[in-house]
Structures are given as structure tokens and as C-alpha cells.
Design goal:
By secondary structure, the chain is mainly alpha-helical. It has one domain (2-98). The chain has 4 helices and 2 strands. The protein has helices spanning 2-39, 43-48, 53-58, 92-98, and strands at residues 66-72, 79-84. The protein has a two-stranded antiparallel ribbon. The protein starts with a helix and ends in a 22-residue tail after the last helix.
């Protein structure tokens, strides 16, 4: 009985260590993502796709279907077409004009105290 208990304890310890390693890997990955967001290490790529730091680095991916979806830009009201059911909030033209994230509508640099609307 004592031998069986030690064997079970070893198996349990092995499982706990395995789970802990996997959790540590996920933790390290999240820290790496947060550091990239804080440093804005991919700013050029982020601005190219017209997304704020939150949407580009941190926002979980939306559950979406592959489907051509018609939607209206919240900013300009012009009809848009997307190849996904997860549509943006603003169209690219509106984002360019007002430097706003196409996904959530925030300032692209997350400046909550802008002094002017347009950067033109």
C-alpha cells in the first residue's frame, strides 16, 4: 500500500510540475505581449492596419464567420463590405482622416486628451 501511495504521489507531482510549466509558459507569453504593447514595438505595422495599441496587441480575437458582410461606417455612414462577420467600427478613410482605430474608435496613439479632431 505504501509503495502504491508513493507511486501515485510521484504521478501527481509530475502532473503538477507539468501543469505549472505550461502555466509559466502562458504567463511568460502574456508578459511578452504586454511588453510589446507598452513599447509599441510594431507601431509601423499597427498604424498600417489602423488599430490602437489595445486592439492590435491585447484585444482577444472576435469569433467571426467567413462571410461577405455589408456594414455602415459609424463615422461617415458610408456602406462598406467586409470578408468577415466581425466588422470594424470605422472605415479606412475615416480612420485616416481622424486618426481613429478602425476596430474600437479610439485615438490611434491612445491619446485621451486630443486638442483637435482632424490631423489634416
Amino acid at each position: 500500500m505504501d509503495k502504491l501511495k508513493r507511486s501515485n504521489d510521484n504521478i501527481l507531482l509530475s502532473e503538477i510540475n507539468s501543469f505549472t510549466k505550461a502555466t509559466n509558459d502562458k504567463y511568460d507569453q502574456q508578459l511578452w505581449i504586454l511588453k510589446n504593447a507598452q513599447d509599441d514595438s510594431k507601431k509601423t505595422d499597427r498604424l498600417k492596419v489602423k488599430e490602437c495599441k489595445w486592439c492590435f496587441y491585447l484585444k482577444p480575437e472576435a469569433f467571426a464567420f467567413s462571410a461577405f458582410t455589408k456594414w455602415l461606417c459609424v463615422g461617415c455612414g458610408l456602406p462598406q463590405t467586409s470578408d468577415s462577420s466581425a466588422v470594424d467600427r470605422f472605415c479606412g478613410g475615416f480612420s485616416d482622416k481622424y486618426k481613429a482605430c478602425i476596430k474600437c474608435g479610439s485615438d490611434l496613439d491612445m491619446n485621451a486628451s486630443r486638442s483637435k479632431l482632424s490631423y489634416e
